Amino acid sequence: MVFTEWFGISLFAGTILALFLLVPLPRIKDLLLVGFMGGGILAFVLLHLMQNVWDFWTFIEVEPFTVMEIPFFLSLSWFPIIIIYSHLLSQYRSVVLMLLLLISFPLAATLVQAYLLENQLLVYQDWNLILTFLLSLGIHLVISWYLFATDRVKAS
Fold it and tell me: By CB neighbour count within 10 A (0-12 exposed, 13-18 middle, 19+ buried), where does 153 fall?
């Protein structure tokens, strides 16, 4: 197993690095609330529901820091990811590029879960990778709608 017990922390560190490489600091400040609500809070609540309430999956030694059995840094990784997504969405004016972005982030989430499954850091019960992709796509659609509705992204 690669990155056992350090995957969540490694992913968080990588997403923070990507955040500061891809998004200007003033834009990060503008998108903090979106990242906090759509990334940090939503991710933690969703992971709690999926694992502890509905028993769709179980994380196994993904990292040493957990809150209510939820990997803390893995959950927190969504905070910078949503800021990056929001910023990139605001940079594109082409519908095709926006759709590619909309699909690429859920695809990345699905690939992360596939990696976790392959390395026995995640076990599914009544869940699969297609559902992961569809759930992530739905979340990104809602975030996109919010960004357009609040004029954080301008329709062209």
Answer: buried
The contacts of residue 10 (CB under 8 Å, 6+ apart) are 3
* C-beta separation of 22 from 87 below 8 A: yes
Number of structural domains (the chain) is 1
Residue 145: C-alpha distances to residues 34, 56, 83, 88, 150 (Å) = 12, 27, 15, 14, 9
Instruction: List pLDDT tens digits, range 34-61.
Output: 999 998 899 999 999 999 999 999 999 9
Range of the domain at 13: 7-149
**Token pair in block for residue 85:** 């997504």
Among 67, 84, 102, residue whose Cα is nearest residue 32: 84
Does 155 fall in a domain? no
